[in-house]
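Exam revision sheet. Question 4 asks you to relate a sequence to its structure. Input first:
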Amino acid sequence: MAAESSPIKKAPPPWTCRYTGYIGSFFVSPSTGLPRDLAYDPHEASSDRFTEAGTWKGGLAMIQLLRYTTTPVGSYDEMVLILGNFDVPGHGSHSRVTRIYVSQRDTTYNGRKNWNIPKHIARFKFTGDFSTPPFTVQLFPEDPTIETPFFTASLQPLGFWTPSFPFSSRITKWIGLPDSFLQPPLPEGEPKNLICGTDKWLNCQGMIYSPKTKVVWMDLKQPGKKPGEARENWWPGIRRWQLAIWLQDAQLDLGDPEVLKV
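Answer key, structure tokens:
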């Protein structure tokens, strides 16, 4: 309880962060629709202002599983969902973080306040070593009485030797990957000093570099709420097994966002 009542550390940009991460990608079609219960945390899902900000166009989606060892607010775990592109009037089509969970309070507040990133706290449970596949991660609501995870992923080696290679977001835009995110204003929640709301659109850009990157498998089979109810994938219509990149000794640099008029 002492940790929950302690003051939140405020850390404005820029941030330089060190981490290990896994990024799985898949394509989503606008013809399938955008299920609110998967695309958003229940808090943002209840806000029409947030969910109807721009027109969803589908495209390249990403699930990111990250363990930050060094940040301005300390270490934490993170799960990020990016669901392709949204058309924003006057600004074209851009990627957006629609749902994101972290394991501590300080980054929750600062992510929301600094960059309009809709962070919420979740409980992360790991089976195996996050730094080296194979391992499994499960995410649970913050409520400790809830025993069913709302997201599960297992990372597995490809099964044969593969070389490592450097990875930089400086070149990803040339192969169709996003290099910036347009984030709409966030709805305020409870507690207000943690789930803060915002009132401006922000264009956020981060630079990523990893000197050692490898390709692995990401298994998105989900357990059911009851025995026999397991689902073969997390997102409707995608394959259970997805290729992912494993970023080792990675660095993320996040600067001041650009305020937009929309």
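Marking note for examiners. The radius of gyration is 18 Å.
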